[in-house]
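Morning run. Coffee first, then this:
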Amino acid sequence: MGVTGAWLRVSPDVGGLGVSDNPEAGGKRDEKMRLCPTCRMEISALAIKCRFCGEPVGRPRDESRALTIDDLGGETIRHYAPSSSVMEAMEAFRAETEVSSNPPADALPNKKNILGWVGKKSPMDSKAPSVSDGLPSLDEKSRALAELAMPSKPSTPVRRPVNQGPTWIKQIGVFAGLVASIIILYFGGNYVWAVMTRKPAPPPPTYVNPAKAILEQGGDPVEALQEAIKALRREPHPDNELIASEARRKLVAAVNDMLNTKPWKEEDLRRAQSMIGEAFKSDSSESIRTLKEEVDQEYFSYRMTLVETTGNSATFRLNNKSKSVLEKPDASDTVTVKVGDTIADRFTVMQIKKDFVQVQDSLRQNRLLTFNRNSAEIASP
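And here it is:
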């Protein structure tokens, strides 16, 4: 087959056939040319003798050669047409795939499950019949073409577990976790609040408290309490608080020893009143205040005066806090008693003499006291 519109020529370097575009070469525009093997001149491809040198050139070896579009520098579009056998094999493969994935319901024999009930057999228990019986088997190339032509196999749907709701064990676990969280939040919150509101510890004292040395040496309890209160007011430190508490205890013990001393003297009562009065000026704590009230009541009770004695009776003038000792007593300030009577709910009359009266103090271990007529002095045997 020839190509129209081009001259064929033979390249002088190659020695093959070509298309010449020179109309003066002596040939037609569509005639194939070749080189003479002797003189290397262009002659017709069908010539058997060179027209230039006269040498026989023989017939061309490839008389039926046809030039393609690739030889002329173009592109060739190739279309592949599968044969009928390949199409039949592809159709058989498609049918086999469909039957394997979706077998018919009547193709599955019935079988019994574990409970004995009759049910349908699963697709995995039986093999679907092959529909490719009698058809030629596919080679590797045809099978690859069939896989490209066939649609992709539908993927098996993933079965998701059905949410059946929380069991009773999970419910108990959730409830226990909730209760534990509430407890932790409650106690943890209280602890955090206590830490946040806790006052910082005061710094250690830098002032040397002299009350400690006085107490260790057995010094005056009033002086020790006064120095302890000064140090505590200067530096309110726990160590100073302990020293002040120890000084109060020493003072209270010393005053009570004076009130209950044996043998008792009126001077002991005066000393006790003086000590508690000085201590109260520096320390007005509850223990000191209570002891001062007790000592004051003791002093006023002991300051009653024997006015007169007549036979089996005696007249006493009680100590009125609102009046002085030199003022004339009122009727409500005097009391007349006999042996066995009680004065001020604590003094019991034991005997009445011409110049004195002896009484017994029930609040001070039945202490005996002697009151002389027209005298402020009190004696104790």
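DSSP finds eight helices and twelve strands in the chain. Good start to the day.
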